[in-house]
Structure prediction request, 458 residues.
Amino acid sequence: MKKAVAYVRMSTDKQDYSIESQKRTINEYAKKNSYNIIKYFEDKGISGRDAEKRPAFMTMIEESKKGYFDYVIIYDSSRFARNLEQSLIYKSILKKNNVNLISITEPMLDDDSQLIADALFGAMNEMYSRKLSKVVKRGMTEKALKGEYISCAPYGYFKPKNKPLVIVEKEANIVKEIFRLFLNGKSTYAIAKILNENNIKTKKGNSIDTRFVKKILTNPTYKGYYRFETEKKVILNKSTHTPIIDEDTFDKVQILFNNNNKRLNSKNKPLEYNKHWLTGMIKCVHCNSTFVYAKYYNNRQDRFRCGGYTCGKCDSSFSIGIYNIEDIVIEKIKEIYPNKKYKIKNISDTNQKKYKLLKDIEKYKKALEKAKDAYFLEIDTLEEYSKNKTFFTKKIKDLETQLKDFKKTNNNIQEISILSILTGNYNMALKTKISKLVINKILIDGKNRKIKIIFNAY
Ligand SMILES: [Zn+2]
Prediction:
């Protein structure tokens, strides 16, 4: 049985439907759909315009965070709120508390209003956390202005209580190595890869990623400064701790960093480094974040999980095993593109010949179009046009025959079904390319365990 409460309200302007009959209808609905109604919240004879004047309603909202019910059943949405703003606010509070609202006389929330509710919920959340961080930051700014290092010690340092940073030799060597590799032209991605191959971990024992490398390369702590951002300004002062990198080197790296965005952009990493061919394509409907690939050990399958959840800005903890999502996607592709083939192009000599044929065909097709235009624009006479038309059509036909023969004798061009590429032993770059070609995005609604695949018109 699903745990539910019912909210009923008598409105002054809508006397037609009494509280008792609302309750009766709700009970019938609950019985039919296996909801167990634990409690009734009743507001009698009050206009619904101001939620605050509806004590039972407010109690219901308040209690929704206690977790003893998962559903609120109402007769119709006018019982819930009388204006959009309030409706959105209270719906998002319920949503935040994982309580679903069911209006028995109306269809379920459509996607749009759901989106609006989500957006508002996000905005409210942000507002609260900003207020909170303002208070916290005020205290920190004062300390920073006094020259105290307030954050936790960055990689390479240790922070004794009430004393300046102390160098951790082993970590400091890694920091130096990161700067050296970067100055030697390695990308942040390549550096992260090298460090991982050498089993270097962060302070917390995590694997190194490009974000970590980027942070190290731009943190002025390493040149003996401390940096602190307040709401209005950035405080950057010389500090009392020993630098790991000399100022010149550090500044040189900053220039390289800004000049060479492309090198720093981990999104530009080659496709074959993709962990999975669905990487970047799965989106969370709750927070709009991309699902990230999470590695699991001890024979458990790796999973995709909402990136917003992993950094604390989404409350949907849903994750899906890579084999499960693969199965779902493959099944759907079987339905939609059962026989779709993909041509694998080789840059061999024979293929260049074929490429030239295709180019020529295209050229003559364009010429034919132009001839047609010229006739319609009365530049060419009908006679001229038909002469051109005969010539170009023959050329195209000849080239097409050549191409056909060429294909017959040339086995280098491979046409492989996209399904066998995705399920077979092909490289990640090709698989990624195919999946991006076919799929636009995958939407995951973790809370309702729904997956929607949006395909490209391919
Ligand atoms: Zn999310």
